[in-house]
Amino acid sequence: MTVFLFRAQSHDDPDEYQLALTQQGYDVRFIPVLEFAHESIAHLADLMSKAPQHSSLLITSQRAVESLAAAKRQAATTIHPQWHDLNLYIVGSKTAQQLSDLSFFSRQPVVASRATELAPLILADRPESLLFLAGDKRRDVLPDTMAEANIPVLEIQAYKTCMHPQLEERLNALTYTKDDWFVLFSPSGVDYIQQLGKHPMLSSCKLAAIGPTTSDHLQQMGLTVHAVAEKPRASYIADAITAHDQQQS
Q1: CATH code of residue 58
Q2: What gap in Å lies between CA 33 and CA 163, rounded to an integer?
Q3: Taking Cα atoms as reference points, which of 175, 228, 232 lies closest to residue 205?
Q4: Total of domains in the chain
Q5: Structural domain ending residue among the three candidates 134, 162, 190
Q6: What pLDDT score does 47 carry?
Q7: What is the C-alpha separation between 57 and 52, in angstroms, rounded?
Q8: Are residues 42 and 127 in the same domain?
Q9: What is the mean pLDDT of residues 236-240?
Q10: Can you tell me the mean pLDDT for 157-175?
Q11: Which residue pairs, CB below 8 angstroms and at least 24 apart, start in 65-69?
Q12: Same domain flag for 194 and 153
């Protein structure tokens, strides 16, 4: 039985999803769906060379951390020292770890697994203002919540999401059976499959989603989702898939 992961394989050896699923006896194949392009690097580097105008930094994805790292390299020795002391609000433990790996900020971040969970934590702190490094497909939860609380937010689009150039070719070459699994990792990934007219194939296999947002998006398309990870981690998606198959056997 094969699990098709609609994501790029990580540079880790082995990839954590591959490891978790092969330990459960599944074959694993990767189908990269998304590609990311950094944006506003020069603008962000220019901001970093001056005293920050915002008391806190809001980051909701690893891609935004990558853009921040690129701006940090570009700004180099011109970075204003007050940037090291910003308060940090982060969505996702992996995003927080990647930010920590920069060895740049002095404060411990406030971290939550989802934007809806982070919002009340930010409101409890009542920061003076936020600099939000966002992607082009960011959700409205955090900006809208901050606006309702009259907390100023400066939003910079730090990256954009694109369709992987080989996605259509790989989908056309895909062979699978009804017993195999398709695992989707984001609404935008689902949308790109739909744009290519390939979404009917998603009803030909068992479907799994990395979390409730992606699951809801699939269900809104009329698709049945057979497994949803309790948390967006490899072990949880492997457990959800295994639990479903064991129930059906």
Answers
A1: 3.40.50.10090
A2: 6
A3: 175
A4: 2
A5: 162
A6: 96
A7: 10
A8: yes
A9: 97
A10: 94
A11: 65/95, 65/98, 65/99, 65/102, 66/36, 66/38, 66/98, 66/159, 67/38, 67/39, 67/40, 67/41, 67/133, 67/158, 67/159, 68/44, 68/99, 68/102, 68/133, 68/158, 69/102
A12: no
In 1-126 the beta strands, taken as DSSP E runs, fall at 2-5, 27-30, 34-38, 56-59, 87-91, 110-112
Domain span at 28: 2-33+164-248
- Percentage of the residues of the chain whose pLDDT score is greater than 70: 100
Give the pairing type, strands 34-38 and 227-228: unpaired
The token pair at 131 is 């600099």
| Angle of the 41-48 helix axis to the 62-75 helix axis, nearest 10 | 60
Q: What type of residue is 246?
A: Q
24 & 63 share domain? no
Residue type, 78: T
**Which DSSP category does 108 fall into?**
P
Phi, psi dihedrals of residue 159, rounded to the nearest 5°:
-160, 160
Do 45 and 58 fall into the same domain?
yes
Same-domain pairing of 65 and 127: yes
The fraction of the chain above a pLDDT of 90, given in percent, is 88
